[in-house]
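User: My advisor asked me to double-check a structure prediction for TetR/AcrR family transcriptional regulator before group meeting. I don't want to rely on an old file, so could you generate it fresh from this sequence?
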Amino acid sequence: MTRLTRAEAKARTRELLLDAAARVFAQKGLAGASVDEIAEAAGYSIGAVYSNFGGKEQLFVELLKERANDRVTQATAIAADAEPAQAQRAFSRLLVEVADKDVDFAPLQAEFWLYAVRNPELMEAYAERMREPRDLLTQLVARSVPDPERAGELSAIVIALFQGLVRMRRVDPDSVPDELFGHALRWLFTGALADEEPQ
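Assistant: Sure, here is a fresh prediction for TetR/AcrR family transcriptional regulator from the sequence you gave:
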């Protein structure tokens, strides 16, 4: 059996804590979940949570950022080699996978948004953590739309579309057909590019 290095062991601990936190937060909400429950679900002591994340709120914000970064990384991989029509289908499959299989994603997004709105001191921490995945997405969008300001605006719309359609599909799958997200992206970018053309 291969022994993990200290850095590998720390990364593994962090990963297990994030996975456990996702389950506990999705079931009990941020206010209802305790550090004890998260540590126990991960198989660690409370000290492991505090030494890796500093506290429950920081753990939650880091969890959302990691999930968002994972989605942007997947989107980047899709866009790297695919033709536009293939990419649109792949983006639609990604949304369907998140909505249908990652059952914690939508509740976690909604839960922290509500918690941050009710606790304004956390709002800036939430916004700061979410800037990194949004900036990554903006870099991806900038491949199609060279205007940096327009790319930033479009990335905000793409995020809102993704989150909104995931929530809608979780509640009423028939209202969000499998290909809808890809179609919406095509409509969005076709309109944005047409808007940039000289009249």
